[in-house]
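Entry for the shared binder. Reason: the reviewer on the internal report wants the predicted structure included alongside the sequence.
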Amino acid sequence: MSQSFTKLWIHVIWATKHRQELIDYSIDKKLYDFIHEELIHLGCPVRIINGMSDHVHVLFLQNPQKTISDIVEQIKGSSSHFINRGEFILEKFAWQTGYAAFSVSESQLDIVYHYIKNQKKHHLKKNGQDEFDEFVKLHGLGNK
């Protein structure tokens, strides 16, 4: 084959430091718009961004020139700087060091898209930590 092709959809989740509920309705759109623009700048087209007051979900196409860890590190660093520089909240804003990233097959894109889109409804039944633990277990990761 003389050409290389990649199309890797990634669902990534990360949380605020100590799972503090810092992302309220007054800043969530600004934050998500900033993350969206940063991902576009990194060559990662975005399908959807949404979350709750203590975590974010993003579904994007991975730029094959960049590792997932480089992408997430860049996004988390620049977005926390954006929140702190903009003085949107009184406390110092920070993300936890870790994250979870999962590949998404083309056949599951709509399911994952709607799952992310309906975060507020979904979290009426399950908190963010329980959701994260379920993802880790579902994908056979960690000690859970």
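Summary line for the report: The chain is about 40% helix and 20% strand.
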